[in-house]
Automatic annotation (TrEMBL):
GO terms for biological process: proteolysis. Keywords: Hydrolase, Membrane, Metal-binding, Metalloprotease, Protease, Transmembrane, Transmembrane helix, Zinc. The keyword Transmembrane applies. PROSITE patterns: PDZ. Its cofactor is Zn(2+). The keyword Zinc applies. Residues 120-184 form the PDZ domain. This is Zinc metalloprotease. It comes from Caldimicrobium thiodismutans.
Amino acid sequence: MIITLLATLVVIGVLVFIHELGHFLAAKKMGVKVEIFSFGFGPKLFGLTIGETEYRISLIPLGGYVKLYGEHPESLPSVAETNKAFAFKSPFQKTLIVVAGPLANFFFAFLAFFLIFSLLGKTYTPPIVGEVLKDSPAEKAGLIKGDKILEINGKEIKSFEDLLLEMRKEEKLQEIELKVKRGEKILSFKITPMYMDGTNIFGKKTQIPFIGIRATSELVHEKVGPLTAIYLSAKKVYDFITLTFLAIYKLLTGELPFSTLGGPITIGKFAGDSARLGIFAFISFMALLSINLGVLNLLPLPMLDGGHIVIFIIEALRRKPLSLKTQELIFKIGLIIIIGLSIAVFYNDLVRLLTGWKLH
């Protein structure tokens, strides 16, 4: 339980802080006065003013926040230095400040993956049969423990993950052909898969091809150079960004059930589980969650960064800002939506706890 709690504090604290740091640096670059940059929320423990900004350490270490001069509609009547006020910057400048938060999350994920690839290399499970299940299609075809799978349907594979991916690419495979190395011999096997109930990466029930083999527990760490590490890190960030947007689309269309969403308790459980697996698993989890945080903040909902960007685009098209009354109404609607979503994901968390989840 202590590991889970500490891991949760680190994950949420660091990722929200990184997000706010992006806003902070962009605001400074655009000439906006940053009144407060706080690590943590709640009551101030202590602070230090440097230049125009008070740097605070606050009581609750779950992230942080920045307070920009002239940011909120109600503060505009009292703005004296319009050249330093957020509200008086151009829509393009305000957009850069707002989008810098999600970009900081993506950049953090890139650095995390780069660290993993640089130190561990490219990690994968070798395509070696670790176990053949009794009476399975693989056993009937003649596969045995220790066989190394070289090809599936004529396509070379390098890892066990490649094998699973190729099998799931086509619906209702009638037959697969495996080229296998057994000792010094190269053998071919034709196998008709069975299908079993399972779920895809989005949690949707589906039929999964099954031939009855399991991988070994061995992991291969293939060393890569700096340029390859940069490429692999960028590709991983891109892949997970597109995957997150796809998951959101499936939620909106009803293809992905809302019950799959999780809140702080779910995050805490996975944070604790990854921490127990080791530092690299924990860093990888932080990277994935950072990408999720960045993508979610880009959604065009009021109160989120994406909602602000929509407003700035409207301002640019109108060539004048929205009225204070309109802005206040938009943010009130956004607050209601955010509260509603928060209650819903917290409900999902409670259901999981009551149906058997345990926080260690």
